[in-house]
Amino acid sequence: MTQTVAAAAQTVAVLGTGKIGEALLSGMIRAGWPTARLLATTRRTDRAEELRARYGVETVTNDEAAKRADTLILAVKPQDMGRLLDELGPHVAADRLVVSAAAGITTAFIEERLAAGTAVVRVMPNTPVLVDEGMSVISAGSHATAGHLAHTEEIFGGVGKTLRVPESQQDAATALSGSGPAYFYFLVEAMTDAGILLGLPRAQAHDLIVQAAIGAAVMLRDSGEHPVKLREAVTSPAGTTISAIRELENHGVRAALIAALEAARDRSRELAGGNG
Ligand SMILES: NC(=O)C1=CN([C@@H]2O[C@H](COP(=O)(O)OP(=O)(O)OC[C@H]3O[C@@H](n4cnc5c(N)ncnc54)[C@H](OP(=O)(O)O)[C@@H]3O)[C@@H](O)[C@H]2O)C=CC1
Ligand SMILES: O=C(O)[C@@H]1CCC=N1
């Protein structure tokens, strides 16, 4: 997908180019950002070499990224954020936009460690940005303007959908959307094991479940129907599906999912406190 990048004159740096940082970097390149306008930072030189070879982007130190980039996307682990901000603080001019993709880290946590008035935006993306089907949930910090939010949407909108929420909803959004893909992979893994139990070869079981997941996802997205209605259409009287649903209810799968997402939300809330 090649798009016109209105803000192409802007330089964007990804600081901490691991799994999500690389996914974003590759997505921005697919969306038409000139590599000359992108910078990446890493902690290890072998990782920097890998990124240069794979994408042709310049890799620099965190200080240099802070000096040269208009927008800094912070993609280190929440536990590394305090240290990174201590390192960056003196080098980030107050006219820069700082975007954090870290779970749990509040915009206030970042603002306190940067020059007064620096614009900060908090974003929770997810790994389907790798296939341009990401979801990025966006909240403004106290100095971020409509222009800063629009610029952030331009970056993340190139690799999927975006949604603005008040920052008070970010931990919940992280539980649903940031972590969300992992729950579906977990279900596919478990259902493939069930296929083995029922005597199917693993590859065939995998293909059947993945296609069921894709079909169900497209119907959920495109039909406009409530999931209950879609499930009822599969569930024939005295048939196979209701036998399975009874077992899911007997095993408390609905309650387990609610508890799981609540635990993810609570962990997100804890993470800003994990910086020392
Ligand atoms: N993975 C996901 O699905 C999602 C992750 N996130 C958030 O993204 C962030 C990163 O997660 P993820 O990509 O999974 O983790 P990774 O560990 O893959 O990426 C973090 C990267 O940051 C590097 N790093 C750490 N400190 C520095 C530093 N001071 N300077 C430069 N680079 C540094 C690490 O280097 P090294 O390799 O040497 O450790 C690592 O490559 C987290 O805050 C997470 O909450 C948000 C949404 C989804
Ligand atoms: O597991 C995590 O903490 C990160 C944040 C959302 C998805 N992965």
Describe this structure in words.
With about 280 residues, the protein is of the alpha/beta class. The protein folds into 2 domains: about 10-170, Rossmann fold, CATH 3.40.50; about 180-270, ProC C-terminal domain-like fold. It has 12 helices and 8 strands. The protein has helices at about 20-30, 45-55, 60-70, 80-90, 105-110, 145-155, 170-180, 180-195, 200-225, 225-235, 240-250, 255-270; strands at about 10-15, 40, 60, 70-75, 95-100, 120-125, 135-140, 160-165. An 8-stranded mixed sheet has the order 3-2-1-4-5-6-7-8, sandwiched between helices. Strand 5, helix 5 and strand 6 (about 120-125) form a beta-alpha-beta unit. Helix 7 packs across helix 12 and helix 8 (about 180-195) crosses helix 9 (about 200-225). Mean pLDDT is about 95; it is low at about 1-5. Belongs to the pyrroline-5-carboxylate reductase family. This is Pyrroline-5-carboxylate reductase. One of its GO terms (molecular function) is pyrroline-5-carboxylate reductase activity. Its EC number is 1.5.1.2.
Tags for this model:
binds (2S)-3,4-dihydro-2H-pyrrole-2-carboxylic acid; disordered N terminus; binds NADPH dihydro-nicotinamide-adenine-dinucleotide phosphate; 2 domains; eight-stranded mixed sheet; Rossmann fold; alpha/beta
